[in-house]
């Protein structure tokens, strides 16, 4: 197992699949990274040398916000929406669907959970 950014990546997986374990890197981003660094599509994590791993880590650190920094940014964005009393902030605060989804017939579980969570507050 190889550790990148605090995540243990399974050595038998392809590089593009294993990188998706890192929060903030999806499949298309991981494929873009592997193409940029010249790894083959069938390259596995166990086949990477230390030099290649260092290049990969440097590229990810320079180009992307990942793991705890990304989680902190998301949390701060939600706090900002709630503090300015925006509609989206209100929906987040009450644990309701935010992006205009239908709530009459769908999202019943979400509405129920929102009611339960608000009663506890």
Automatic annotation (TrEMBL):
Cited InterPro entries: Rbsml_uS13_C, Ribosomal_uS13, Ribosomal_uS13-like_H2TH, Ribosomal_uS13_CS
Keywords, ordered alphabetically: Mitochondrion, Ribonucleoprotein, Ribosomal protein
Matches recorded under Pfam families: Ribosomal_S13 (PF00416)
Family, similarity comment: Belongs to the universal ribosomal protein uS13 family.
Higher taxonomy: Eukaryota, Eukaryota incertae sedis
Any GO molecular function: structural constituent of ribosome
Keyword NAD: no
Protein name, per record: 30S ribosomal protein S13
Gene Ontology CC entries for this record: cytosol; small ribosomal subunit
GO biological process: translation
Keyword Iron-sulfur: no
